Automatic annotation (TrEMBL), chains A, B:
<feature type="domain" description="HTH lacI-type">
    <location>
        <begin position="9"/>
        <end position="63"/>
    </location>
</feature>
<keyword id="KW-0804">Transcription</keyword>
<dbReference type="GO" id="GO:0000976">
    <property type="term" value="F:transcription cis-regulatory region binding"/>
</dbReference>
<keyword id="KW-0805">Transcription regulation</keyword>
<dbReference type="InterPro" id="IPR046335">
    <property type="entry name" value="LacI/GalR-like_sensor"/>
</dbReference>
<dbReference type="InterPro" id="IPR000843">
    <property type="entry name" value="HTH_LacI"/>
</dbReference>
<dbReference type="Pfam" id="PF13377">
    <property type="entry name" value="Peripla_BP_3"/>
</dbReference>
<dbReference type="GO" id="GO:0003700">
    <property type="term" value="F:DNA-binding transcription factor activity"/>
</dbReference>
<protein>
    <submittedName>
        <fullName>LacI family DNA-binding transcriptional regulator</fullName>
    </submittedName>
</protein>
<dbReference type="InterPro" id="IPR028082">
    <property type="entry name" value="Peripla_BP_I"/>
</dbReference>
<keyword id="KW-0238">DNA-binding</keyword>
<dbReference type="Pfam" id="PF00356">
    <property type="entry name" value="LacI"/>
</dbReference>
<dbReference type="InterPro" id="IPR010982">
    <property type="entry name" value="Lambda_DNA-bd_dom_sf"/>
</dbReference>
DNA sequence: TCCGCCGATGATAACGTTTTCAAAATGGGA
DNA sequence: TCCCATTTTGAAAACGTTATCATCGGCGGA
């Protein structure tokens, strides 16, 4: 049973034990060609006894087909990233694919190249790039031609097939909602973006201009809730700020804490709306109004697009879904009826 | 440049173009054996021109060395899991390894077996199992012998090398802290555990018995903050509950919301202490007292253990770290001086 | 000048599997 | 009974790389 040491049993070992030829074992295992019941049993018995497990490298070498897909992302712990990854993994697993994850820590060219090289040092069937921020966008540009690639992001695509969450529509809906509540304008605390086109900022800006109200300067917070917290404290001193849209829910929570510590009440004094639909948002006090996005579905759609690329040629080029505004407690009318 | 179609260039194509033999190309690429500068240049030029990329499957097949490690986990979105995964990935990437992730959704034998089979259908150098819950523990038992395996968990190991976060010590510290504040006893809202030995519950129980106070029944919440929220509402009606330790911070946040909605103030009426050190905890209102754990470090240590297994035989068998109690606003003395 | 040594190079084997192709076995019809 | 079609089986080739081994060249020492 516990045959340690030496080397893993090969198909030849199984064949010898079962008293059949090597190809017969292969046929039993892959099920590609029928084999007589009697031999099939002998082979399966031998497989069990030896604990034989096909060598994927050899199999991949001869078939040329890979069953591994690479995911490139800048971070795997943030809510949106982790959920998208989960969706990709689930869809891939159900299709018999394995997911390899490689993190791209910065958008510095050397680091990006190193990460891409590492990811591609292994034979992969395709690549999914989480293009939510600069590192993701940089990685996309460094992937070699001829490799099936899909990007998952919140904006429109450029070249490669994209699975998209329509950030712009979500941000517009949230901004329209706040304006409809009577707020004079809406401020925006931004997350990093993948390029010039920032879907969330675009939607926010578009809603404001369409309503013919002033567009205040964007407040950049990066990914850190700490920074949003500081912004919250700064904003607390300004009476003209009555509604804030945040690039994601973590930022919104940090911001609310900053406002709270500085004595501003949410939503009585300031309305705060987040983005993403973080599962903790509904337990927050006050519960967070947010633009809910189905990241897991984004991941599944990303893999589906990639599957289309791998299979028949008639693959879809994009897959888009609209987010949904979820109104909870952190938003309301402005303090002085606007 | 963009040579699509046909098949990827092989080392033979490079050799022919550079006018050298196949092994010489291999030597240039791997750097294993010195090659004359003139030939090296020719080879590198040919590599560039053809866009040659070594076939990892062939390489893996002949060397027998794998540069892929598999991670088995039941979920990749929860804070502890995601952070541990991040630590593993980081350490692996720095060592030139790639991380494959396979999710085990339930502890049902068939599902576990399928996931393990999928993960091992690819040749891997070793496996890290996130053994925080039943699916992880089940996976650990289904891995074949002879494969380097490390478990990362919050409890002690059994057989395979373990990287550990000392849950027991953390839970004891938190419970001692609450008892020291004057609480008559401390209730415990539990997360799922990987087996009979639940580190957090053990530490909590040990601290209570050592202080000779009553040990209330464990309140099981699973992983869902929703369930903790309900428990919070239930507990709100009980005056004897003045201090609650939660199995993780998400649960604590759900619980606090439930208490809040039912009119109980935290920490004035009830003290709540979480577990894990979720980054959002400090922004919560009230900011969450918690037992902070360094999951990323746990991941790095897991990989280090695995590296020891892969390299020389004198590998460490365990690696343990103690968590740290971080006192914030959600805990304080009981309402009526105890 | 010759011998032996060392470094660079190339031919060939090996890794473990699937695929191709031919051979053997089986079955059915005349 | 014989022959052909069909199914099952096995031998050998192929995948792309690295490892092994022998060969070739140059160089230093006698």
């Amino acid at each position: 049973m516990a045959r340690s040491s030496t080397r893993a049993p090969s198909i030849a070992d199984v064949a010898k034990l079962a008293g059949v030829s090597v190809p017969t074992v292969s046929r039993v295992i892959t099920g590609s060609v029928p084999v007589s019941p009697e031999r099939t049993d002998r082979v399966l018995a031998a497989v069990r006894e030896l604990g034989y497990r096909p060598n994927g490298a050899a199999r991949a070498l001869v078939t040329g087909r890979q069953s591994v897909i690479a995911v490139l992302a800048s971070n795997t712990t943030r809510y949106g990233y982790a959920s998208t990854l989960q969706g990709i993994e689930e869809a891939a697993r159900l299709a018999g694919f394995i997911v390899m994850i490689t993190v791209i820590e910065t958008d510095e060219p050397a680091a990006v190249q190193a990460a891409v090289d590492l990811a591609l040092s292994h034979p992969v069937a395709g690549v999914v790039v989480l293009k939510f921020d600069p590192p993701g966008a940089a990685a996309l540009h460094r992937l070699p031609d001829g490799l099936p690639v899909v990007a998952a992001s919140g904006g429109r695509g450029d070249g490669v097939p994209h699975a998209v969450l329509d950030d712009t529509a979500g941000a517009m809906a949230a901004t329209d909602y706040l304006l409809g509540l009577g707020h004079r304008t809406v401020h925006y605390v931004a997350v990093p973006t993948s390029g010039r086109r920032a879907g969330r900022a675009t939607g926010w800006k578009r809603a404001l201009t369409r309503a013919a109200v002033e567009v205040p300067p964007v407040l950049d917070a990066g990914w850190e809730p700490e920074r949003a917290y500081e912004i919250g404290r700064e904003l607390a001193g300004r009476d003209d700020v009555t509604a804030v849209l945040c690039g994601n829910d973590e930022l919104a929570m940090g911001l609310m804490r900053g406002l709270h510590e500085a004595g501003r009440r949410v939503p009585a004094d300031v309305s705060v709306v987040g983005f993403d639909g973080h599962p903790m948002g509904r337990f927050w006090t006050p519960a967070l109004t947010t633009v809910e996005q189905d990241f897991a579905d984004l991941g599944r759609r990303s893999f589906a697009l990639l599957g289309g690329l791998l299979g028949a040629g008639h693959a879809a080029k994009t897959s888009s879904a609209a987010p949904r505004l979820v109104v909870r407690e952190s938003s309301g009318p402005p303090p002085a009826a606007g």
